[in-house]
Amino acid sequence: MYSNNRVQLIAVLGDRERRDACEAMGKSGACKVNRLTGGSSELEREACTGRLRHGEHPRTARQVGAALADRVEWCIVAILGIDVGGTFTDAVLLENGRIRTAKVSTTPEQDHAVLAAATAVGADGVQRFTHGTTVATNAFLERKGASTALVTTSGFEHLLHLRRQNRASLYDLAADHPEPLVPLHRSFGVVERIGPEGIRVPLDLDTLPEIEGDAIAVCLLFAFRDPSHERAVAEELRRRYPTKHVVASHEVAPEFREYERASTTAADAYLGPVVARYLRSLAEACAAAGLPEPLVMRSSGGVSTLDEAAEHPSWILVSGPAGGVVGAARVAELAGFDNAISFDMGGTSTDVCLIANGRAERSNERYVGGLPIRLPTVDIHTVGAGGGSIVWRDSGGALRVGPQSASALPGPACYGRGGTAATVTDANLLLDRLPSQLADGLELDRASAASALDQIDPSSVVSVVNAEMLRALRLVSVERGTDPRDFALVAFGGAGPLHACDLADELGCSTVLVPESAGVLSALGLVGSEERRDHVRSYVRPLSEVDDLPSEGEADLRYQGQSFELRVPLGGDLAAAFHAAHVERYGYADETREVELVAVRTADVVPGPSIDLTSERAGSVVGPARLDLAGATCWVPDGWAGEADENGTLRLERTR
Fold first, then answer.
1. Do the domain assignments include residue 314?
2. Domain for residue 359, yes or no?
3. Which of 245, 224, 225, 226 is nearest to 234 (CA)?
4. How far apart are the C-alpha atoms of 595 and 586, rounded to whole Å?
5. How many Cβ atoms are within 10 Å of 584's Cβ, its own excluded?
6. 158 shares a domain with 214
7. Taken in order 26, 31, 36, 37, is the CA torsion positive or negative?
8. Which residues pair with 250 in a beta bridge?
9. Which helix (H) or strand (E) element contains residue 297?
10. Using the 8-state DSSP alphabet, how is residue 62 labeled?
């Protein structure tokens, strides 16, 4: 007998096999095999323990599933997702195909807010817990990381300070750049040099000086090609300083372009002690509360283990917003849209991302706080425009909104917590677009909102913040050659549905999707996130000299002599695919020119739980009207109307 098997079918079978086997057994979504009764063959045991893979046996997963259907006892998997935002912490619990949600106020100690949200949603018997956090982002932007040192090849100690020649402001020769995370007096060189043909200067570990600080970033000049020297330096530093957080560039971002690699490695080291303390504290608190150790959302849109996130916190710099994009893609798919734009407006910022052919766009580099981070990330563009963004006038008297925010404490003036600055939330309240009470029982004070805005027209505030968000939406669509009229706008976050229809009018989108769980969609995305581990291998040599490339993934290619690459899918004729991509981007191709392979990017992916939304929400709406959702508010202006579908998603269309 094969009994007490606690393996999660949704995680151990490939997506196709899991779906086929579960459907044949009469189950879908989040279930576990609790017990397999009767005698069982090796193949049947493999079907439950995850060793059955497509093509490894003549019997398909569907056939095996059908054979096991009458002999499997099931237990329901409870899956928890918690996303910490600037104002509220959101929780979603998926159990027995039903979704429960909760929203609590964010606290300065994020682990306290996480436990409060888990309690509020009634999390009990949870088997999978996924977490999106802003701890790394906040520490980076507020410069509250560890005291960090840099070790690099002798002669390149100024690497982080020389940067690129790009100016912060094109016509301002005196414009300030963000200060590097590592000051010059903590930048050290070690004697070594590796060239294209091998070692040119032997590594001399005796030239390593005494190093101060809590963290050390190691970035040698050609470690992306041969990490042997860098590995030896890191090992020596860990031996000398066992309590310091030591990070080597080949462990984080093994790519050429030493400035971006050094900046990424420095960020990883800088964040290490802070994020590790938080994650350890969270793990201990979860264990005490009977919750499993959380998986942490990565910037690339998948989750990783807590230990992985603590070891390399630069991987979770865009943790929370990435979950929202995953949720938006699922909502759009269920509504029948392969192409969509996610629009997440929260308390302090707005995040937008293009979703094409059902997949979120990804980039290999982004700037955070003005510094380059060379890591795979969901291609989110963020602007400082949220419900808590502060209204002010510039020196010329023009009305401005953000990027300064009232934050969770004291919050907008209407929260009644001592805040006096006017915000977007105050303006929406005076325009009767908000209820008198928000999530977590927060009562709104109209008198305080009116006093804060004084003589400022609330509708002008909304127009100004809409203009800021419209620029972000155009940047990820129109400015990248995509016609937004072919895309649906998925609006979520506490304030997203308030502004979505007005923005869709300006952008030319004819459809706005507002999920029933709009206020907690980032947490819902965490529930359904895949497990993902990204890999990159640098080549920087002619494509014709490279053999045995993976069959799946992406390649960074360029013509020899070019400074920037184009990304094309692996498989087939890569050179032909690159020429076609070059024509699409630049309008021409030179098929006689040598193509250079810069890097190959792959990912190990384990599909996440299948989220099938069910809802009793029904009815239609014709603007102008306000709809109060759980954790969010939707404003339907004149000229818009819609109705809810079977998934609870409100599909709004222009009526004129």
1. no
2. yes
3. 245
4. 16
5. 11
6. yes
7. negative
8. none
9. strand 295-297
10. H
516 and 633 inside one domain = yes
Q: How many CA atoms lie within 13 A of 93 on its CB side?
A: 20
- Cβ-in-10-Å burial (0-12, 13-18, 19+) of 184 comes to exposed
- Please state the three-class secondary structure of 493-540 as a single string: CCCHHHHHHHHHHHHCCCEEEECCCHHHHHHHHHHCCCEEEEEEEEEE
Distance of CA 610 to the CA centre of its chain: 19
pLDDT value of position 41? 52
pLDDT per residue over 350-408, tens digit each? 999 999 998 888 889 988 888 999 999 999 998 888 899 999 999 899 999 988 888 77
pLDDT tens digits, 421-451 = 999 999 999 999 999 888 667 889 999 999 9
Look at residues 215, 248, 275 and tell me which one is the last residue of a structural domain.
275
575 and 495 together in one domain:
no
| 96 domain-assigned | no
Q: Which residue has the tokens 């809802």?
A: 615
Residues 232 and 150 grouped into a single domain:
yes
259 shares a domain with 171: yes
Q: Taking the CA atoms of 267, 273, 274 and 276 in sequence, report the sign of the dihedral they define.
A: positive
8-state DSSP, 614: -
The structural domain count of the chain equals 4
- Nearest to 504, CA basis, from 470, 456, 540, 472: 470
Task: Say how far apart CA 559 and CA 541 lie, in whole Å.
Answer: 11
Three-state helix/strand/coil letters over 165-191 = CCCCCCCCCCCCCCCCCCCHHHEEEEC
Residue with tokens 């509020």: 120
Q: Let me know whether 28 and 151 are in one domain.
A: no
Residue 476 lies in domain = 319-365+463-526+616-654
Distances (CA, A) of 112 to 86, 286, 606: 14, 10, 30
Q: Give 488's contacts (C-beta < 8 A, 6+ positions apart).
A: 332, 335, 337, 339, 340, 341, 509, 511, 512, 513
Could you tell me if 519 and 539 lie in one domain?
no
Q: Are 223 and 190 within 8 A, CB to CB?
A: no
Is 495 within the bounds of a domain?
yes
C-alpha span between 218 and 252 (Å, rounded): 11
Task: Return mean pLDDT, the chain.
Answer: 86
Shared domain for 558 and 510, answered yes or no, is no
List of residues 6+ apart from 10 with CB closer than 8 A? 18, 22, 29, 30, 31, 77, 607, 608, 609, 610
Q: Is 244 exposed, middle or buried (0-12, 13-18, 19+ CB in 10 A)?
A: buried
Q: Are 418 and 410 in contact (CB under 8 A)?
A: yes
> Are the beta carbons of 340 and 513 closer than 8 angstroms?
yes
Where among 275, 301, 333 does a domain terminate?
275
Taking the C-alpha atoms of residue 56 and residue 183, their distance in angstroms, rounded to an integer, is 55
pLDDT at residue 328 is higher than 90: yes
Rounded-to-integer distance, Cα 515 and Cα 495, Å: 13
- In this structure, is the dihedral angle defined by the CA atoms of residues 540, 542, 543 and 545, taken in order, positive or negative? negative
What is the pTM (predicted TM-score) of this model? Answer: 0.82
Residue 641 has phi, psi (to 5 degrees) of: -155, 160
The residues, any chain, with a CB within 8 Å of residue 174's CB and separated by 6 or more, are: none
